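ASSEMBLY PREDICTION REQUEST
Request ID: AP-0331
Submitted by: J.K., bench scientist
Number of chains: two
Total residues: 293
Priority: normal
Notes: Please return the full assembly, not individual chains.
Input sequences:
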Amino acid sequence: MNMNSENVSGKPLPGGEFTVKRWMAYLWADATRNDDDAFRHEEIARERGASRQLVPPGLAQQIINEASARVADVLKDIGYDLESTVLFGGQGFEFHRSLYVDEPYSVEGQVKDIVTKQGGSGEFDIVTLEYEVFDDDRNLAYTSDKQLIVYPDS
Amino acid sequence: MKANELSEGDRIPEKTYENISIDEMRLMSAIMRDYNPVHFDPKAAERSGYPKRLTQGPIFTSYTTQAVLELVEQPYDIRTYSVRYEDNVFEGDSVTASGTVVEKQATDDGYLLTLDLETTRGDGTVVLSGSATVRVPSE
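STATUS: Completed
Returned structure:
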């Protein structure tokens, strides 16, 4: 059964806090062949004008994943059953400042909307989740939205 | 060519990542605590209908952002980016991240470039599409 967007739009998502530790930024850079050592070493980051070791931009989604609920739990909470097929459609970010290791970030989110579409395999829903991520001073660090493609009846 | 010399219609320098290794995929699974075995267990990948173990989206998303990072002075100069996954990437694949400048705006401290992004697999299949806005210095 496809979800009614009006019923769930604005539904808050579980929030939380996450701090990227040095090892995570370092190994993320390794796993993604990032050759910029500002993501591995504080002294290199400082040479580039940063205050401490930097977090790779690609890790921004993991901060949200760690601080908020898992996708499966979010969809279950909305009302999808566990047999639904879920694909990750895409994600967007808008940054308001650099991200650093050892800095706590708090995440808040909500269901933005659900749009039902017709595809070759039948009807599917595009569920959009949106998040705000704040630093310790409650300044907005970045915002993000995530699209999940859900085939409810598969 | 320096980033501030790019004009609308120009391609940004592309970055190619060859032969995505299973060790990198295992590392990413561990970092993300992503327990989906299609990323590290060949039998699970086969049962799910994949020809090989499936590369995680954050890996080739990061390849794409790294192509953009080459243009900027610091990570925060990537003001926005968005990606859409178009197809799968597997262990051993090679992918190339590239993009095109679609808009260039002068600002008080340089330029704001809007980019269309595209990442392709070795066979030419587009695996990721997206966009980004980046700040580049005037000099």
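REVIEWER COMMENTS: Chain B touches chain A through 29 residues (CB under 8 Å).
SIGN-OFF: pending second reviewer
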